[in-house]
Amino acid sequence: QPEQTILFNVFQNGGSAMLGIAKVELPEVKFMTETVSGAGILGEIEMPTLGIPERLSAKLNWESINPDVFDAFDMTKQQLLECYAAVQVQDQKSGIVESVQYKLVFLTAPKGISLGGLEKSKKQDADQEFELLRLEVYYDDSEKLLIDKLNTICRINGTDQLASVRINAGLNAL
Q1: With 2 labelled, which of 8, 21, 39, 170 sits at a CA distance of 20 to 30 A?
Q2: What is the pLDDT of residues 35-58, one digit of tens each?
Q3: Diameter of the chain by CA atoms?
Q4: Run of H or E including 33
Q5: Residues 6+ away with beta carbon under 8 Å from 42
Q6: pTM given for the model
Q7: Average pLDDT over every residue of 89-100
Q8: pLDDT tens-digit readout, 122-149
Q9: What are the backbone dihedrals phi and psi of residue 6, each rounded to the nearest 5 degrees, phi first?
Q10: High-pLDDT (> 70) share of the chain, %
Q11: DSSP for 41-106?
């Protein structure tokens, strides 16, 4: 039973930990939809499109501005952000409490930056928003979700949602 995040770190482009991050706002994953109606359907159905996500974005909330903020804002290159969290879990039968790894990997394009505010003896509360081109989610070393918008990949619990779509669209013939 997952209980809470014990500790987390964010790394940029395989480097050292980015310092001063107060919070990571993770993306909401929703699939594109189309309203379907007509013969044989009672009313309307908002039907999700197989494996095609809506826009994905994430936000880093900073305690204060530091050089890492501007390194991640470089629009001339994609940014790789890796979020590692130690999540506290408790076994319901034994009562044993331990931690497991929750890891998210983002290939991003920077969208915007808020420099926060200035107030005596207060945090600056800056934030950055990123468009996610690729999203990977791992729980306890097991891949749970992979969405790669540029390579037409959507894998959920190891099942490739778009395998037949790539074949039917001629993408595997390249």
Answers
A1: 21
A2: 999 999 999 999 999 999 999 999
A3: 65
A4: strand 31-37
A5: none
A6: 0.90
A7: 94
A8: 988 889 999 999 999 999 999 999 999 9
A9: -80, -50
A10: 99
A11: -SSEEEEEEEEEE---EEEEEESS--HHHHHTT-TTS-EEEEEEEEEEEE-TTT--EEEEEEEEEE
| Contact (CB, 8 A) for 137 and 157 | no
Here the tokens at position 97 are 């409490």
Please, which pLDDT band fits residue 173 given cuts at 50, 70 and 90? low
Angstrom distance (rounded) from CA 164 to CA 171: 10
Nearest to 128, CA basis, from 63, 72, 54: 72
Nearest alpha-carbon partner for 111 in 69, 61, 150, 59: 59
> Hey, which residues does 31 pair with through a beta bridge?
53
Q: Are 87 and 100 in contact (CB under 8 A)?
A: yes
24-57 burial, b at 16+ Cβ within 10 Å, e below that, comes to bebbeeeeeeeeeeeeeeeeeeeeeeebbbeebb
Side chain identity, residue 2:
P
CB 50 within 8 A of CB 165: yes
pLDDT of 18 reads 80
User: What is the four-CA torsion angle of 121, 22, 25, 89, rounded to 10 degrees?
Assistant: -140
Q: In 107-171, which ranges are continuous DSSP H helix? A: 163-168
Tokens read off for 135 = 């999203």
d(CA 54, CA 73): 23
Q: What tokens does 96 get? A: 């044993």
Looking at the DSSP bridge assignments, the partners of residue 97 are: 90
